User: What shape does this take?
Amino acid sequence: MLLVQDLKVYFVSDSTVARALDGVSYEVRTGETVCLVGESGCGKTVSALTILGILPQPPAQVRGGKVLFEGQNLLDLDEKELQKIRGNRIAMVFQEPMTSLNPVFTIGDQISEAIMIHEKGGEREIRKRCIKLLQDVGIPSPEERLKDYPHQLSGGQRQRAMIAMALACNPDVVIADEPTTALDVTIQAQILNLFRELKQKRRMSLLYITHDLGVVATIADRIYVMYAGVIVEQGDTAHIFHDPRHPYTQGLLASLPTRTKRGGALHTIPGTVPDPAYKPAGCPFHPRCQFAIDNCRSQFPGMCDYGEGHLSRCPVLYERARPPHGAA
Amino acid sequence: MKTDQKNFVQKKDIEGPSAPQESRWQEFWRLLRRNRLAVAGLVIFVAFFFIALAGLVLTSGTSPVFDPAMVRLQEKLRPPLSAPRVEDLRPEEIPTLGIYLLGTDDLGRDVFSRMLQGAWVSSTVGFVAVGIAVLIGIVMGGIAGYFGQNHVRFNQIFVTIALLAGAGLLMAGIIVLGIVFLVVGITGAALSRQWKRGLLKGRLKPWDKVFFARTISIDTLIMRLVDIMLCFPVFFLILTVVALLPASMYNIMIVIGLTSWMGTTRFVRAELLSLREQDFVTAAKALGVKDWRIIFRHMIPNAMAPVLVSATIGIASAILIEAGLSFLGFGVPPPHATWGNILSDGKRFIFDAPWLTFIPGFAILIVVLAFNLFGEGLRDILNPKLRERY
Amino acid sequence: MLSFIGRSIIQKIITLFFVMVVSFLIIHLAPGEPSQVDPLNPKFTPEMVERFREAFHLDKPLHVQFVYFYRDLFTGKTVSWKDNEPVLKKIGERFLNSLPLFIVGTILTWTLAFPIGIRSAIARGGVYDRSATFVSYLLYSIPGFFFAYILILVVVNTFHVPVIGMKTFGFGDVSVLHTVMDRVWHLLLPSVLGATVGIAVLSRYVRSQMLEVESQDYVRTAKAKGLPSEQVHYKHALRNALLPFVTMFGLILPGLIGGSVIIESIFSWPGMGRMAFEAILARDYPIILSVNFISAVLVLIGTFISDLLYMVVDPRIHL
Amino acid sequence: MTVRRILIGAPIVLIIFLLQSYFWVPTYEQQSKGNPQRLTEYITASSGDAAILNPILSADSASSDIESMVFEGLIDYDEELRFRGRLATSWEIYEEAFFYVNEETAIPQVGKADASKIVELLKRAKTGDIAIDVTVKASLDNIREIAIIPSRTFTVTRGENKAKFKIHVSAPARIKLVLNEVDQDLFQNLSRILGKGYFSSFDGRSYLRVDHDVGEMKRAEYAREILPAIEHNPIVVFRLRPNVQFHDGHLFDAHDVKFTYEAIMDPKNLSPRMADYEPVKSVEVVAPLTVRICYKRLYSPALGTWGMGILPEHLLNDEALKAEAIERGKDPEKFTMRQSSFNRHPVGCGPFVFQEWKSDQYIMLDRFADYWEGTPNYRRYVYRIIPDPLTQEMEFYAGTVDMYNVQPHQVERLKHDPTYQNFSGLSFGYTYIGYNMRREPFNDRKVRKALGMAIDVDKIIRYVLYGQGERITGPFVKQTDYYNHRIKPITYDPAGALRLLAEAGWRRNKEGWLEKDGKRLQFTLITNSGNDLRKAVLAIAQDAWRQIGIDCRTDLLEWAVFIQERVDKADFDAVVLGWSMGIEPDLYQMWHSSQANPYQLNFVAFENKEADDLIIKIRQEYDHEQQVAYCHHLHEIIAREQPYTFLYVRKWTAVLDKRIVIKETDAEGNVVYKKITPTKTGTYTFHFNKWIKLPVAPVFSAEG
Assistant: This one.
């Protein structure tokens, strides 16, 4: 359905070149929920924006790779064609419900606007669809809510409205960029349940971007772990959680506070995420990796296949765990 | 693009190479250099400043190097770069550089030296006028922004009016009434100070409540004052006052300054209102820092960005206003020359001596343009919201 | 809402009263008095000057004059001292002359400035943005009368067409269409001249305001919804950037009164600006004070309207 | 998106609409050639708008330009500055003199005599019975009639600071003498017959009884006012031109003249002309077309004042004003001529009829078909208001304005321009530097002279005025014969100036500044803003005086502040200013020592006994030669005293489109075109009514 191949996006300012995406490839098949996981600043939001082509071009430059959607490379399309796809075939839900809705228009206007752009329809007919959409996303008494302004809704309701807006033209793919981060936990759970129901009802694929491994566990079919603009590990949720094959993924999982490690000191990964403009050579994780060897410092690691779509970009661990489970 | 890689590997406490530390100034220069127009503006701004300085040095004093006021009637309306007719000139009348760089005006005065003096006078008019405007703007804006909430009490108004009226009457010669007012004012002041220290606890009778009732808040007071000032069409206010005061360079500066502080007040007040909500202000209050120190030490520097921008553009418009006033005959009076009054004196000779109009005209154009472009560049850089964001 | 309207009306009236007092004081305390008599013509004697002072109540104490003046103003009886014309009729006449200039100038300024500003905000730092900034500051920096003279010289020398004044003289009696078109032609230069400066300033404000709004998240959402770029910028972004312009719009009404003294005197256009300027020179107190009073009323109405407009433009604000 | 399309489309449509109007506007060539009507229109421009179009109320030059077209006076000046009749065909000046019979004093050889005896004595003297010398004989021959006014008693009411009271007068008999010509030495000559003290010893007080006790001084004053010993009453009788019409067809007659006088003297109208007519005692309508004007005292400029425009009595008399007040809903009592709408739609009997006035735009007049001297050639006279001199100049080049007052620096260029004809002449005003003689260094004549010698006025004329000006040495109009040409202007001699200053005690100190007992010679020279020539003189004077060590500061003040705060209150050191003069040599207000207190015109405080009585004599002298002699003598005194440094009198230059000529029909009735030639005093618009513009500039034969 949606295939990102070796995407390179650099941010050029007069003195530095920040390599936000250094050749990222991932895929979202129809009806599947794919999770893109990584610490903030690793480039996951940039990749989402690049797919939709709404990355502010002056500072950013797409330096390579393709974004194939139903065989078409979105990067080659001009603005007119891209507009037909945005919101209609690929929709996006953003992180900040507080600022992502236009404060001066009512919820009804902003949702019906999405419909009117892509499909013809009478005034009343669109209104009915909006009300139905608001019901789907679980907003109580939708007729009144239509007339409300964003500042009159709570954070959770606003995020639901965002989702309703995204689903307005029942797109094939929905990209959700950390939709629950700004919400408190109880609302977060409701939104996640909503996403799961919508996925079953509407047979749409979901690209879920987050840094919160807990959320990934509950919703993802497949997972891509990103670090410093590069996919370091990908695979089914089970593989990643139970059999992580990349030191960074292992570090992430180790620092998750679960009931079993009550009282003990949490494991932390030393150091910080490198500045995209001053990335270390070789494997970007090597300064913080405990298994790093000289080779890691000079040679940029390739992907090692552990079978069943479980790949990891760490040859050192690949060597150590020679017999892959069930793979050839 | 060679990225200087300082890759060093230390065991556990590994610090990846991070961006070299940039001081605020370096960052400012980097951003400024990107906007070539602003840089051009800055260069002309600095050049104009030095010309003005040179103008001050070279043209003032009893026997200046370039004498702007030297009248040589026989050398009238000579085109630029023309050599003086030495034979009928007295020795001290020969221009210093030997030729008239920018020609002579209708009284034979060397336009080059007048432009030098004009540069100094025009820039002082600009800087001082904007200085006054910014100063008043900051003080009024600061008060309105920070103390906006608390209200002016009736007794405070009563005391101030009594004292003012007393002083006024005394000056006007009505002694008896003047003294009565002063006494009333002083007792009122004493009473309110006691009230402030809460000494009058029990003895507040009903009419006392009226006496100390709260009237209007400081913010509305100042904002209404701004409205009053805005009600006067600016140009007329300047014209009326300039036409009626004895014309002098300093009056013009003061008048332009006094009629353009409203913009700055609004900027500063808006900034302060938003800053007041910020946590660092409440933190400073929690630390027991005094109000005035919070305003001028913490809040005003943050509000300086828009003020600085409107200052640079203010200087430009002050020069333009002075030129407009000279056109109507109310600019800086002779013998001081400003670019404005050279231009308006020269307009009569537009057919006979076009350089008398075009030289000052373009000079004003270039300098004012430079100020504006630099101001615009400044606005882009200093405004955090406009900074580059990924 | 009603309490706001009530409160602000009271405040405005108090402000108006202060404006009346302050302007009255400024004019009367300033040196120089109106004199119908040309002091340099030897035939005029001091008793004449004295008699005029009584006729204009100038010999009475200030507060009595204040009452006299504003009583006449409100009953429409004030008469200009220069030529005994009722002030309101005279201002009305001049108002009609200034109106076309003001309308054309405002329309041009408030329509062209937005596309220019928005376009340079979108392509920030691009060629269009840099050239638009340069040109608009160029227009703003030229001293007004210098620019007017050059414009007149160019048009008169290349087209040999009269430009000065409100209509062409020596035109003979021609069809109504000719006279109308002739008035329109005379309107062109002064209003375009006024508008260029207006467009220059306003487009800079639009640019900086739009830049601030463009970086907001909801603009990105709008793009994500697949809206055409025009709708993104002109609907979503512009609506949010309108707030400061509403206040500015409130303040341009007195521009109608101010007009531009310089443009009007160069184009010998009998507008409000020139009348007020000549009134100041001739110390024609009734005209000065009436013009001031009307401009104060306009400013207060303007600010009142812009306060109301706030709520229409930005639902978050409710007074 | 509609918003963007509107924001771009609307202004573009508007601009296109504005631009296309270019094609409807006639270019300059089309205007002058293609449009025959333009040739019959005379368009002139002025920088200021008229205030009140009413000759007795207006004070500004723009209004008087229009009034000279719409109204007509009784007389005006011909080409040689002699009076010529306009509304009046002819006029006659004679005098009635009175003196009270003074029974107490004895007349030599006759003793005390009553009225009839005096009359009989005078008759005998007239017929030559008594030996009298030739001048007295001339005076007696000039007497046409002698009559006796019997003694009578009457009461008069007078007010003294709010208290009204009655004065009972029992006047003695009075002798009335009617003279053929005004004779100011009449009573001196008669006193030779009636005795030296006859007139001076007469004391009115003994004849009047005052109810209210006002004190001796006041009684004497009333006596002089009510019972003057001698009284000159010059009388002017105008014979008016028959069937002259006002623009509304109403016939002009003597009542209009009487009404115009009464309107001026009516305090309600606040007329600025009141000073000219104060000496008038009465105006009587003797016949529908004759009016007799009697004066209280000898007043030589009397005739000149009747060049004033005559108002239509039927439109402005009390009934008319009351009707207008009621019709306009105003209060009839307080409604005066000043509020009348006549001032915006004047009706006179001049060559042009008022058409339309759009304030601050233009005033349009059409020709008056049945004007008494014949219909003017120009069909329409347009008076445009263009405040900016530069645009006025461009409109002239463009041909939409026919006349342009050339500025000095343009005279060279426009004089040789073939498409224009130019005229120039000396203007009636002069520019000077006045010194406040009440303040230190300026009370010393030497200092004033030295300051004058330090300024090279010839250089100013040559360079600032481009030669468009002449030196002047005294306060009279140079073209008139009152100006004493024998007096030479001060030569430029800085060394001489320093010598004079040294004599006055001012020597150069080490820094080069002039000093006298420790105090530096330092003062401020001021003038009004907005006048470029005076600004140039300011800068030149400052620079010239600085060369010889005088620390002169300059200041430029706004007009009203300059006049009312500094000049009127005599709060200045030196001032650069100018006077706009009339032809009449009456300098009382400017040079008489009584006119030196605040708000009066002798602000330099020039006090000179000799000059004072010369000024009074000039005002009363009817004999032209004698008057000229007095003027020359006064001119000499002022030139010697140097209260002013007289600078220059400006030569004005006006350029006119060459195609404007004089069109006349000569005796045989065929049309003759003549070139416009200026009069002796330089007024080129003298024959304005005969002007017309031709499609092509005619070439005149040698005689021009």
Remarks:
- The first strand of chain B starts at residue 151 and ends at 153.
- Chain B has 14 helices and two strands.
